[in-house]
Design goal:
Helix content is 71%, strand content 1%. With 541 residues, it is an all-alpha fold.
């Protein structure tokens, strides 16, 4: 299977190498290869040019080219290394060895062109060489980097047929790729398989598994892998602890996170910016910004510079507890300390100012954001639309919607729900039905919030016919009412003296129960310790 896949990607570069002679006489470079500073990219390229251009007769060694290619690859100058190979192809002087081709495959994988790397594999097989584990590892890494995980699994499965045994790097790369793709169960299976073959996980393998499991919210599995890691004598590093802390903090398990943090520092492992940011985010999510501030101070004292994630978490938390002045101060400190805000930071600040009714300050942040060349994203636009609708600026909100559409950002369900709510809030209810029709045209399905907003809006206007029509439409579409829907309908009916209608609605809910209507009915019954219908009839009489 690998041979077929490789042959399909076999390309002119490979064919040219196949037709090259094994060795040909060429000139000696003016500067001997031994005198080249391999850390200097320009010097390496200069020597390569001389090797191709000089006319003195001398047999060149492929080893010299390989040294230059290695130098460029280590410097991450992958495109330059590929260009060198292309020029070597046209020179036609030397046949590359397996090491040359391994470097080339690694370069292709590193620039997300693993398809060409598979073409090089096809060439290796065609000329009768045996690809080594380094070749396969480059391809596996490249395929995983490009999200082609199933192909990577298939490639590893075929390695033995080609006389090559997967090593720890092969399996660790594959596990990392599977975890990134959210395929943690498959990653665990690969880990079991490698252990069965006598290849035992190292810290890189365990870190990939723990990170993948935490990302998938599988904290118990992650903790089990961590326990196995320590049992097998593999010392966790800062990446291990950071992954665990991030997972625990995101799940709100701050007690466990503190215990892991204490264990980490007790082992003499110095937390990095990711570690600190994870803990700060955890405290901020729990609205414990004072504890988050303590960690931030500790972080700075220990010489770890906060990054955009750290500052954004603090700013968002301060706005959430209503301390907008401290949030503004934190934003200023962020910029003074040379940390550049990103779209998430700006969106959090705009949202924060909008929620406390400081729309002028929010507009100032929007101007600053755009002047820095940072384009608003969907969340930013939704925040702006929400703020404008709630401050009675419907025309401005409509202009923002037009702007986001013109920039190729289509409104989502949140946008439309906000607009419908804003229209009723601003007394422009006629346009609400137009928005609903636009939603249907753009294949965005209304949800319980959409229908509840429509029902609430028309109920407040006393238009029971429209409210009832939307309630029926909601039920026909299989969308169950929530407690807000039930409260809106029944309380408004009772308030308007429409007890019989409220009673009929209650009968309808009793006939078609779900968790929400059940709890609503139970709540009514609990009020005066009497059945719901009896209670409803008594208060609507």
């Amino acid at each position: 299977m690998v041979r077929r896949g490789a042959s399909a990607l076999y390309h002119p570069f490979s064919r040219r190498f196949l037709s090259s002679s094994s060795t040909t006489t060429h000139t000696t470079p003016r500067k001997p290869i031994s005198g080249v500073d391999m850390g200097c990219q320009n010097e390496a390229l200069e020597v390569f040019d001389e090797m191709l251009q000089t006319k003195q007769q001398r047999v060149r060694s492929i080893y010299e080219y390989n040294r230059l290619l290695t130098s460029l690859s280590k410097k991450k100058s992958y495109h330059k290394a590929i260009e060198m190979c292309r020029r070597l192809r046209f020179d036609g002087a030397l046949t590359p060895d397996i090491y040359t081709l391994s470097i080339l495959m690694n370069c292709y994988g590193s620039v997300c062109c693993t398809g060409y790397g598979l073409g090089v594999l096809g060439m290796i097989l065609k000329i009768g060489h045996d690809p080594n584990v380094v070749c396969f590892n480059s391809l596996v890494k490249g395929l995983c980097r490009e999200g082609r995980v199933e192909e990577a699994v298939c490639l590893v499965g075929n390695m033995k047929d080609l006389g090559c045994v997967p090593d720890i790097v092969t399996y660790s790369s594959l596990i990392h790729g599977l975890c990134l793709a959210g395929m943690w169960e498959e990653a665990m299976c690969v880990c079991s398989k490698m252990k069965g073959e006598g290849v035992f996980p190292n810290v890189v393998t365990y870190n990939s598994l723990i990170h993948g499991l935490c990302q998938a919210h599988e904290l118990e599995e992650a903790k089990a892998v961590y326990a196995e890691m320590k049992k097998n004598g593999i010392s966790p590093n800062v990446r291990t602890f950071s992954s665990l802390l991030h997972g625990l903090c995101r799940a709100g398990k701050l007690g466990e996170a503190n215990a892991i943090f204490f264990e980490m520092t007790s082992c003499g492992i110095i937390p990095d910016v990711i570690t600190y940011s994870s803990i700060i985010q955890g405290f901020c999510s729990a609205c414990e910004w004072k504890e988050a501030k303590v960690i931030l101070c500790q972080m700075i004292i220990n010489g770890v510079i906060p990054n955009v994630v750290t500052y954004t978490a603090m700013i968002h938390s301060l706005f959430n507890v209503g301390n907008w002045e401290a949030a503004e101060h934190m934003f200023c400190a962020m910029k003074i300390n040379g940390c550049i805000p990103d779209v998430v930071t700006y969106s959090s600040i705009i949202d924060g100012f909008a929620k406390v009714g400081k729309w002028e300050e929010a507009k100032g942040i929007i101007c600053e954001m755009t002047s820095k060349g940072i384009s608003p994203n969907l969340f930013t636009y939704n925040t702006m639309i929400h703020a404008l609708c709630h401050t009675g600026n419907w025309e401005e909100a409509k202009a923002i919607v037009c702007e986001m559409k013109s920039k190729g950002i289509p409104p989502d369900l949140v946008t439309y729900n906000t607009m419908i709510h804003g229209l009723f809030l601003n007394g422009i209810w006629e346009q609400a039905k137009d928005i609903l029709r636009e939603m249907e045209c753009t294949f965005i399905t209304p949800n319980v919030v959409t229908y509840t907003t429509m029902i609430h809006g028309f109920s407040n206007l006393g238009n029971w016919e429209e409210a009832g029509r939307f309630f029926s439409q909601m039920m026909e579409h299989g969308i169950s009412p929530n407690e807000v829907t039930c409260n809106v309908l029944i309380s408004t009916l009772i308030k308007d003296g429409k007890g019989p209608e409220a009673s009929r609605l209650l009968d309808f809910m009793i006939e078609r129960p779900n968790m929400v209507t059940d709890s609503f009915i139970q709540g009514l019954s609990f009020c005066d310790k009497k059945p719901a219908e009896e209670h409803l009839r008594s208060i609507s009489a």
